Amino acid sequence: MRNLFTAFILCFLFSCNNEKTLRLPEIMYADTNEVLDVSHAYIFYDESKPDSLELNRKNLIGTTNWLINVDKRLTLDQAIPQVRFLQDKKRSAKMHKNDAAKNYFTCSDSSIKNLGFIEFTDVVYKTYEEEKDLELNNKPNTLKIFINSMDNIIIDSFENSSEQTSKTIIKALTSRIDSLKAIKEIDKSSDPYIIYFIYNKRLNFQNYISIKSLFKDFKLESATISKNEFIN
Fold it and tell me: What are the Cα distances from residue 7, in Å, to 29, 35, 39, 107, 120?
């Protein structure tokens, strides 16, 4: 078993031995600050490569919790295909499988000046253009949040849309759902609202993790956040 401190040292040594630097995304409060029984994958930012990245997954063990270390400078268009590749490898494993093992993104948690981890085990990444007609536009009680940047976050519904900054997005979303809930009280057959996130593919991984951190404690009885995340 590897504790938090060991995970930090291994990441440091890996970078040094290969003359690579991996800049982790920075957040204030992570989901957790300790994950045991882990193995690592690294997605480096590498300007010398045609796609500006390099994936190293040699040390991944299928039965462990996976810590995915993604350089914060990479865009979602660069990083997410590699993340999906790793997810598919783990989900499709026939042998040496541990259904209790989880996947985490590694971050730098400034609140404790140490590593932190954000879980994404059940997240399913999809391409927006391929799925929007099937999943997003044909379902009632759907709210879509378009993330173009940290200062360009748009709440979109069938009735209206409004642009908010990252500082007001939670308040605006809660207010919007509360107003829709009042209508829902009249129609008892209405289902709870499902919130979908659609991320701009050019968003960098730092901003992506910041958004996930922002919403990690979001709870509302009349709405749930979908595990499906769309890259547009």
Answer: 18, 9, 9, 12, 18
